[in-house]
Amino acid sequence: MKRLQLLVISAMAFIVLGCSTSLDAYKNVEPHLKLEEFFNGELEAYGMVQDYSGEVIQRFKVDLVGTWEGNEGVLDETFYYADGSTQKRIWYLTKIAPDRYEGRASDVEGVAEGKVAGNTLNWTYVLNIELDGEPFSVKLDDWLYLVDKDNMINRTQMYKFGINVGEITLYIGKK
């Protein structure tokens, strides 16, 4: 019986790992993404948040302004939610290598770490949000795909205790 359980668990792990997307799969996809170029100037975004079941629980628009000096950038975001609420987030970004970035924001625990390959950036970080009036932290696995020099699609999986609790889908475009 233990042997059968081990075989089933091994097969499931192989399937899950075999289906996961590797950032390296995008290394030759163009146009190549450089955050300091795309997130420079005025942008706008439209998105939605879905819960674990896929139900849309929030819709929003974002006005973004990005500025860069050398390897240091600031991304000033203002969120306008469908329920009438607003939120401000300011990212402080640093290019630490040709394909690596770090980001900090007041509602992010520690440092967001990102790596670029081709047209794609993968960020991972812990975001502190409010849920039903209580603080709640979620780990984000954030994938940004440059469509062309002016447009980007962002897909984010949210996790709590390793369990998928939701997803964010976002379109970002230059004004």
Automatic annotation (TrEMBL):
Domain of life of the source: Bacteria
Entry keyword set: Signal
Residues spanning the signal sequence: 1-25
Pfam family membership, one: DUF3833
Organism: Pseudidiomarina aquimaris
Name listed for the protein in its UniProt record: DUF3833 domain-containing protein
